[in-house]
Amino acid sequence: MLSEHLASLNLSQYLGKLQEQGLVDLSQLLLLPETDLEMQLTAFGLLKGHAIKLKCSIDTLRAKAKAGLSSAPAVRQPLQRETEQLLQKRAEVDKVRQSIEKCRAMILNVDIGGYRRTLESIETLQETMKQMEVVEKALGC
């Protein structure tokens, strides 16, 4: 399906470059994040003009799939299913990111100085106890 779509755009020469990136199906291209898509495509090895052309076709397919107007159920159905899965995974990732941020904030707010002062106090008490043992031995207690 990807090879057919690229051929329809006269961009077949990029099939290998996209497959090297693990993009073997048209639905995978449709799942690439919309932000910086053109830049991603050029990073995959497409010339800028060709990346723009492919991005426009991806945008069109997305719009058709979103509106349920795609004439090819083979494009629409996997896209809708994969889009739902991707959105669910993104929500899960966002929850994990929020948890990580909360943990970071908690770690940054830990008063390490307080722990260090407590440790120094314990060390001082241990030294004092050793000195008291020496004095007690000297006094014969």
Spans of at least 5 consecutive residues with low confidence: none
Helix content: over 70%
**Largest sheet at a glance?**
none
The H-and-E topology, N to C, reads as HHHHHHH
Number of helices: 7
| Distance between the first and last residues' Cα | 93 Å
Description:
The chain has 141 residues and is an all-alpha fold. Helices cover 78% and strands 0% of the residues. It has seven helices and no strands. The chain has helices at 2-8, 15-20, 26-31, 37-43, 48-67, 73-108, 112-139. The mean pLDDT is 83.
Q: Which labels suit this protein?
A:
141 residues; 0% strand; 7 helices; mainly alpha
How would you summarize this macromolecular structure in one to three sentences?
This protein is an all-alpha fold. The protein is built from 7 helices and no strands.
Write the layout of secondary structure elements.
Elements: H1 2-8, H2 15-20, H3 26-31, H4 37-43, H5 48-67, H6 73-108, H7 112-139
